[in-house]
Every structure is written in structure tokens, then in C-alpha cells.
Specification:
about 45% helix, 2 helices, mainly alpha
């Protein structure tokens, strides 16, 4: 039992009488503005652009391994963590 065309017309007429033509057009305009601002918010970038560091600060340097230390053997089945990145 769905709504047929006469039922929909009666519902539309009741809504028009209750709210009036001006109020309905105002609500639809507000609805359209809301959708527009939502789409605009979705397209805007949420994070600010990343600026490169200034040249006055020294970049981080990774220390070279000492010449006297022996390299550690790595087994093929094991993975190692260096603690960097």
C-alpha cells in the first residue's frame, strides 16, 4: 500500500497550507546553502600546507658508524630494527 498520486497531492496541499509558500521556499534556500557549504568544506584542504624549514636551522644529520666497530651479522630469517625512521 504505497502512496498514490492523489495521496501525495493532498499531503503537498496540507504542507503548503501549514507552512505557506514563502516559508517553504525559505527552507529550500537554506537547504541549498547548507549543501553548497558542505561541498565547499569537503573540497577544502583540511591540513595547512607544509612549509619547508628555513635555511638558518641545521638539518638533522645521521652519525656515521665508527671505524673500529665490527659490523653485526644479520640472519636471513630475522629482521632488525635500527631505531631510525
Amino acid at each position: 500500500m504505497g502512496l498514490s498520486l492523489p495521496h501525495l497531492l493532498i499531503v503537498a496541499l496540507v504542507v503548503l497550507v501549514l507552512f505557506g509558500r514563502g516559508r517553504i521556499s525559505e527552507m529550500m534556500g537554506d537547504f541549498g546553502k547548507g549543501i553548497k557549504s558542505f561541498k565547499q568544506g569537503m573540497t577544502e584542504e583540511t591540513d595547512p600546507p607544509v612549509t619547508p624549514p628555513s635555511s638558518s636551522t641545521a638539518p638533522h644529520q645521521i652519525a656515521a658508524p665508527e671505524a673500529n666497530s665490527a659490523p653485526t651479522p644479520v640472519n636471513s630469517g630475522e629482521t632488525t630494527k635500527t631505531g631510525q625512521g
